[in-house]
């Protein structure tokens, strides 16, 4: 990935993150940190890796995404809006009674292919098998939040994916680890996935170059299911206004304005460093 493309993706991610902050302010929603940590992953998937057709939402050859981490739904909605699946004004009705964008993704929303929820990998596996039996070329991507590897039923789905060998399923697992030495800490999970017949790698989930390297390490066409452990912990790219205390209460208008200003400042510092 050249510097120009990386800078472009970082600009898209900044816009998505700011829309997530605005959605939190308008909807008076708390606990949106999961939506802020997953932004780079979703931007890379939708703008670089997945085959999508905003003007043909039911194209049978499209790739599908299952959001197991439903708390990250605002980031997914902001991405779909930016890509033209629906009007951006819909974002301001997030979690509003009668609005199109609810707390849990719904298949009636343009661009949403499956409902989310704990162990979304089971849903993703079902989609992957359906696509395979229909002889289609679409792939299925499942984005999972921190801690889900311990969830009930997940390893059963991981085993079933390997047994049925759908070469069209990707699992992206968020981890609270910090890039660097923490990448080595993921070795046991990588080995366990490999023991189940999965191709797996680890990436800095906040860095587009690292994300791209991990995806490229997984050869296509695939003969086994694939997983990427994305480290999204440490110094995340979200504003201080949405740290621990802001998790427990809806953000005020002052919080939103301060958060937007912080995001612009942090983006400017990164640009200057580059």
Q: Which stretches are low in confidence, meaning pLDDT under 50 for 5 or more residues running?
A: none
CATH topology heading: Rossmann fold
State the separation between the terminal residues, measured CA to CA: 15 Å
Strand residues, percent: 5-15%
Number of domains: 1
**Structural class given helices, strands, pairing?**
alpha/beta
Number of strands: 5
Residues in helices, as a percent range = 40-55%
What is the CATH superfamily classification? Answer: Thiamin diphosphate (ThDP)-binding fold, Pyr/PP domains
Order of helices and strands: HHHEHHEHEHHEHEHH
> CATH class, anyone?
Alpha Beta
Mean pLDDT, as a whole number? 86
Spatial strand sequence of the major β-sheet? 1-2-3-5-4
- The best one-word shape is globular
- Determine Rg (CA atoms, Å): 18 Å
Q: Please count the helical segments.
A: 11
Architecture in CATH? 3-Layer(aba) Sandwich
Structural overview:
By secondary structure, this protein is an alpha/beta fold. It has one domain: Rossmann fold (3-Layer(aba) Sandwich). Helices cover 46% and strands 10% of the residues. The chain is built from 11 helices and 5 strands. A 5-stranded parallel sheet has the order 1-2-3-5-4, sandwiched between helices. α1 packs across α4, α3 packs across α9 and α5 packs parallel to α6. It is globular, with a radius of gyration of 18 Å.
Give a brief outline of the structure.
The chain is built from eleven helices and five strands, in the order αααβααβαβααβαβαα.
Fill in the keyword field for this structure.
274 residues, 5-stranded parallel β-sheet, alpha/beta, Rossmann fold, 11 helices, globular
């Amino acid at each position: 990935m050249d510097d120009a493309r990386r800078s472009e993706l970082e600009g898209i991610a900044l816009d998505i993150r700011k829309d997530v902050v605005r959605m939190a302010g308008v909807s008076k929603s708390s606990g949106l940190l999961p939506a802020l940590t997953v932004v780079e992953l979703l931007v890379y998937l939708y703008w670089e890796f997945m085959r999508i057709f905003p003007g043909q939402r039911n194209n049978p050859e499209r790739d599908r995404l299952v959001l197991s981490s439903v708390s990250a739904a605002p980031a997914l909605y902001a991405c779909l809006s930016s890509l033209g699946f629906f009007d951006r004004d819909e974002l301001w009705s997030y979690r509003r009674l009668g609005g199109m964008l609810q707390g849990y993704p719904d298949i009636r929303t343009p661009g949403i292919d499956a409902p989310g929820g704990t162990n979304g990998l089971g849903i993703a596996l079902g989609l992957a098998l359906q696509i395979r039996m229909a002889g289609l070329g679409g792939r299925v991507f499942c984005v999972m939040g921190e801690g889900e590897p311990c969830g009930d039923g997940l390893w059963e789905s991981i085993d079933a994916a390997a047994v049925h060998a759908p070469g069209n399923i990707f699992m992206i697992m968020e981890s609270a680890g910090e890039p660097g030495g923490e990448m080595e800490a993921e070795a046991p999970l990588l080995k366990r996935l490999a023991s189940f017949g999965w191709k797996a790698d680890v990436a800095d989930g906040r860095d587009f170059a690292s994300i791209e390297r991990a995806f490229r390490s997984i050869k296509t066409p695939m003969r086994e299911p694939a997983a990427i452990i994305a480290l999204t912990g440490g110094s995340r790219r979200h504003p201080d206004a949405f740290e621990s205390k802001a998790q427990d209460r809806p953000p005020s208008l002052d919080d939103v304005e301060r958060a937007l200003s912080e995001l612009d400042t942090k983006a400017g510092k990164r640009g200057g460093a580059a």
